[in-house]
Write a structure and sequence with these properties.
It is built from 7 helices and 8 strands, in the order ααβββαβαβααβαββ. With about 230 residues, it is of the alpha+beta class. The strands form 2 sheets. A 6-stranded antiparallel sheet has the order 2-1-4-5-6-3. Strands 7-8 form a two-stranded antiparallel ribbon. The structure holds 2-acetamido-2-deoxy-beta-D-glucopyranose (4 copies). One 2-acetamido-2-deoxy-beta-D-glucopyranose binds next to loops. Pfam families: CREG_beta-barrel.
Length: about 230
C-alpha cells in the first residue's frame, strides 16, 4: 500500500515537472491599417493574434447543442508570411476538439485587446476602435498526407515555439492540425456598426511586413517546469 502511494507520488510529481509555461512569444509593433480598408484590417487582426476563442456547438451529453467556447493558439503563417487561413493545433483528447469535429459550424473571435494595442490607446475592449473580428465557417481537421498539414505546422510552430515540444512534453496526445474554412467575416473596427468584408476581398488583401525594424528569434530552453524563451535580434 505504502509502495503504491510512493509510485503514485513519483508519477504525480513527474507530471508536474512536465508542465511547461511559455513566457513570451514574438512582439508586434506595427499599428493597424486605416479603418476604411476593412479586408486589410481583418487580415491584420488575424495575423497579429497569438490566440483566439473558438465558438462552436457543444455535443457532450449534458449540453448537446449549447454554445461553447475554448481558447486556442492560432497562426495564419510565419511571422512575415500571412495566408489569412487560421490554423490551430489540438489533441483529439480535448472534448472541444471532439465536439467541433462533429458539429463543424463555428466562429473564431479575435480582438486587438489580445495585443497591447488597445491598452496603449486606452481603448476599453468593448470600444469599437479596439477592433474585433469574427470568422464564421466550418472547422476542418487536416489529414496528415495533406500538404496543408505542413503549412499549418510551420505556421504554428514558428509562432508558438513551445508547441514543437508538446509531442514529448505531453506524450500520447496525437496532436492534430486543423483550420477554419471561412464563410462569413464580421468586423467591428470603429463607430458605426458591423462591416462585412467578402471572402474574396479578405484573401486578396496583402498585409505588408516591411515595418519590422528587426526580426526577432526565439530560443527555448526547458528547465524543469519552466520554459525560458530568450529573444535575440537577428
Ligand atoms: C521571412 O523571413 C525569413 C527569415 O528571415 C526568410 O527566410 C523568408 O524568406 C521570409 N519570407 C517572406 C515571405 O518574406
Ligand atoms: C508563404 O505561405 C504560403 C502558404 O500560405 C506558401 O505557399 C509560401 O511558400 C510561403 N512563403 C514563404 C517565403 O515561406
Ligand atoms: C451530438 O450528439 C448526439 C448524441 O451522441 C448525436 O445524436 C448528434 O447527432 C450529435 N450532433 C452532431 C451535430 O453531430
Ligand atoms: C451549420 O450551418 C449551416 C448554415 O451554414 C446550417 O444549414 C446547418 O444546419 C448547421 N449545422 C448544424 C449542425 O447546426
Amino acid at each position: 500500500m505504502v509502495f503504491a502511494q510512493f509510485i503514485f507520488l513519483v508519477i504525480f510529481i513527474s507530471q508536474f515537472y512536465d508542465n511547461a509555461e511559455c513566457i513570451s512569444f514574438f512582439h508586434f509593433t506595427q499599428d493597424p491599417p486605416p479603418v476604411r480598408d476593412i479586408a486589410l484590417m481583418s487580415r491584420y487582426i488575424v495575423h497579429h493574434s497569438d490566440w483566439a476563442t473558438l465558438s462552436y456547438l457543444g455535443n457532450q451529453s449534458f449540453m448537446d447543442g449549447m454554445p461553447m467556447g475554448r481558447v486556442y493558439s492560432v497562426s495564419d503563417g510565419t511571422i512575415n508570411n500571412s495566408s489569412g487561413v487560421p490554423y490551430i493545433m489540438a489533441s483529439p483528447m480535448d472534448l472541444s476538439f471532439q465536439d467541433v469535429v462533429k458539429t463543424k459550424n463555428c466562429s473564431l473571435v479575435l480582438s486587438l485587446a489580445q495585443s497591447d494595442y488597445c491598452k496603449k490607446k486606452s481603448y476599453d475592449p468593448e470600444d469599437p476602435r479596439c477592433a474585433q473580428l469574427t470568422l464564421t465557417g466550418k472547422f476542418v481537421k487536416l489529414d496528415k498526407d495533406d500538404p496543408e498539414w505542413n503549412v499549418a505546422k510551420t505556421a504554428l510552430w514558428t509562432r508558438h515555439p513551445v508547441m514543437r515540444k508538446w509531442h514529448n512534453l505531453v506524450p500520447g496526445h496525437h496532436w492534430q492540425f486543423a483550420k477554419i474554412n471561412i464563410e462569413h467575416i464580421t468586423l467591428i473596427d470603429t463607430f458605426g456598426g458591423r462591416k462585412y468584408p467578402t471572402i474574396a476581398e479578405y484573401f486578396k488583401a496583402t498585409p505588408t511586413f516591411n515595418y519590422w525594424p528587426k526580426l526577432r528569434h526565439s530560443v527555448i530552453t526547458v528547465k524543469k517546469n519552466v520554459i525560458i524563451d530568450e529573444e535575440f535580434i537577428n
